[in-house]
Write a structure and sequence with these properties.
9 helices; three-stranded antiparallel β-sheet; globular; alpha+beta; 301 residues
Length: 301
């Protein structure tokens, strides 16, 4: 089997089948390591969103998808980071707001060394982007709607200011003149943040203070408050636990026990394939697969 080692610059908005398969194989290899850590150390996690649709509709990846999203309660996430750095630091590294002052998101990426996965939307951000698993730390959030609003809105606001510090023209769900106006405002905010040297660590601290405000209180609600919308990933624990396993490619992953009704509430008829123009992925601006052999796992079995 020939070595799979190449660089793709300005790939546009489409993968060829072989490249997409290679990205998915690398991510599955990482996922196996992730599961090994979680099972050995009794860490809680669950997959959701597009990974859930893929499991239910396709038994694995959505055919055009190029990422795996994992949610973890923050205490389990922090333990995972500690263990993975110690036991897998020779193969993988973490990219988040604490490891790189230019990283503009509140997610954490567990990246494979020797690879590059530089998304079109982040091509101006000087971070060491690699092929990754996307980890979402989940915090306890208030069960009271008013208190939740006072928690969620600051978390969401500061997370978006973090993005604007690095990205003057973020991806927006608007078109036409509305998009141009909002992009103009975003660019002005970006210039102001840079002009006045607003600290990345200060913004991150404000966001974290809001996200973690109710950790340890024992609420009935979990949330990742830095999504596109403030309440997009707010989940009742009764929807999530007890977790159940679903097939994902050759593996089994944990999912919320009410994953079907949760996906229906968010996406409608998620079992129906979307039209071709809505089949989206991360569209890498630059991709390097490193020293990788396609089908290496199958070859070694």
């Amino acid at each position: 089997m020939r070595k799979w080692k190449e660089t793709r610059e300005k790939m546009g908005r489409e993968y060829d089948a072989y490249t997409l398969k290679a990205v998915q194989e690398i991510e599955l290899e990482m996922l196996e390591c992730f599961l090994e850590i979680c099972e050995k150390h009794d860490l809680t996690y669950f997959a959701f969103a597009g990974t859930g649709i893929g499991a239910l509709r396709h038994g694995g990846f959505i055919p055009w998808d190029d990422d795996i999203d994992i949610n973890m309660p923050r205490k389990d996430f922090e333990k995972f980071v500690e263990i993975a750095k110690r036991d897998y630091g020779d193969r993988y590294y973490f990219l988040n707001a604490t490891t790189d002052e230019h990283y503009p998101l509140m997610t954490t990426r567990w990246c494979k060394k020797g690879t590059v996965f530089w998304e079109e939307s982040l091509k101006g951000v000087p971070c060491k982007f690699g092929i990754f698993l996307d980890l979402y730390p989940m915090d306890e959030v208030s069960d009271d709607p008013k208190k939740l609003r006072r928690q969620a809105m600051p978390a969401w606001f500061w997370s978006k200011i973090m993005i604007l510090r690095e990205v003057p023209y973020p991806v927006l769900p608007f078109q036409g003149m509305t998009k141009k106006v909002i992009h103009g405002i975003c660019a002005c905010v970006h210039v102001l943040l840079k002009t006045f040297h607003v600290s990345h660590n200060w913004l991150y601290g404000r966001c974290m203070a809001a996200c973690t405000k109710y950790n340890g209180v024992g609420t009935d609600t979990l949330g990742y408050l830095c999504s596109s919308q403030p309440y997009e990933d707010v989940l009742k624990k009764s929807q999530v636990y007890p977790l159940k396993k679903l097939k994902f490619e050759h593996l089994e992953l944990n999912f919320p026990n009410k994953i079907e009704e949760m996906l229906t509430a968010t996406y409608g008829d998620y079992m129906k394939l979307p039209p071709a123009e809505k089949r989206k992925n991360h569209f890498p601006y630059r991709l390097e697969l490193g020293d990788y052999t396609p089908g290496r796992k199958a070859e070694n079995e």
